[in-house]
Amino acid sequence: MAMQPILEATQPLPSAAAPPAGEAGIASAKPGRRLVWWGAGIVLAIVLAVGAVLVVRVVRRPPEVLVVGVRVEDISRMLAVTGRVDALQTVLVSPQFAGRITEIVRHEGERVTSGEVLARLADSSARSNLVQQQAALSSREHDRAQARRELARTVSLEGKGASTTLELEKARLVMSRATDDVRRLAAVLREGQAQLTLLAPFAGTIVRRDGELGQIVGPQTTVFEIATLDEARVSAEVDERYIRRLRLGMSAQILPVGSDEAGLAATVSYVAQSVDRQTGAGTVRFAYEHAPTQTLLGMSVDVNISIESVASAVTIPRESVGGDGTHPFVLIITNDRVSKRKVTIDDWPALRVVVRSGLQQGDRILVDPTGAAVGARVRAKVMPDAL
């Protein structure tokens, strides 16, 4: 039997399967993406590190405090007080005895002379006494006139030898006694008249009239107030801490409270030598150099007293001084560190105080003496308009 040829396939043997289209690009991109993520991570780490450093710096940054520099300047020390205008001489006019006002002769605001009648009173008993006193005075004046004529006749006779020396002395004695009686009775009459009239005790101006027509008044009733307006002065109560610095003759400026007008020149005319125990103040008076023309009695005035001038004084704001008044101190900055320094100051009522010891020009101090702890590190900020 013939053998059939065996045919063998010539197709290639199978091998590893090839990747689908597109997968080759993905595989090749994986290494580059990894590099991007690594770079992003490094940048983020750097940013976080820098942020952390900045946060630490901000947290640890020293606090800011306001400071002022020490001044050296020429100053004029002034003392400001409030006073009231009063008259150099003032008196309240009242009747010696009770009576009813029947006539008001002078009125408020009018000028009067010494002894001038201000008002008249009516009182039946006083009026009866006046009539009797007037009659007694008239009778005695008649006796005095008779004694004067008798004395003149006796002198003439004595010159002619017709009268003796004894008779002349007797006539002179009668005349002297009559004259004394007239003077006494005239004084009694004036006193009686004073009971029924109110007289001005001195020349001045009637600044107040409280009595009214028909009113019953007595020794405790003020009918008029008279003052010397041409010689007005100012009185003020000054604290015992400062009154010891005042001296007679110190210059001052006086102006109405709240006024922008130029002050009137005055001088210290009186300084009390004692202090009121209740108020702790003493009275100081000021005399105008020229009498004011538009000043009212009782009005309030501001008085600025020139105490002294200090050349090259070391000054700081009063608010920068700490302590209880007996141990003053300031907080001073040196190399950005706060330290406490004792100072000696003149305790004077002013916005800036004079430092006698403890500071010098160029020092910087905290505006607030409680603004930082001693030893703390701070950042100084100069207060505007402080230097």
Question: Average pLDDT across residues?
Answer: 81
Helix content: 25-40%
Q: What is the string of SSEs from the N terminus onward? A: HEEEEEEHHEEEEEHEEEEEEEEEE
Task: Give me the side-by-side strand order of the main sheet.
Answer: 2-11-14-13-12-15
User: How widely separated are the two ends?
Assistant: 135 Å
Name the quaternary structure: single chain
C-alpha Rg (nearest Å): 53 Å
Largest sheet: 6 strands, antiparallel, barrel
Structure keywords:
single chain; 387 residues; alpha+beta; six-stranded antiparallel β-barrel; four-stranded antiparallel sheet; 21 strands; disordered N terminus
3D structure, described in words:
With about 375 residues, the protein is α+β, with helices and mostly antiparallel strands. It has four helices and 21 strands. It has helices spanning about 25-60, 125-160, 165-195, 240-245; strands at about 65-70, 70-85, 90-95, 100-105, 110, 115-120, 195-200, 205-210, 215, 225, 230-240, 250-255, 265-270, 280-290, 300-315, 330-335, 335-340, 345, 350-355, 365, 380. The longest helix is centred in the N-terminal third of the chain and has 37 residues, at about 25-60. It is rod-shaped. Residues about 1-20 and about 20-25 have low confidence and may be disordered.
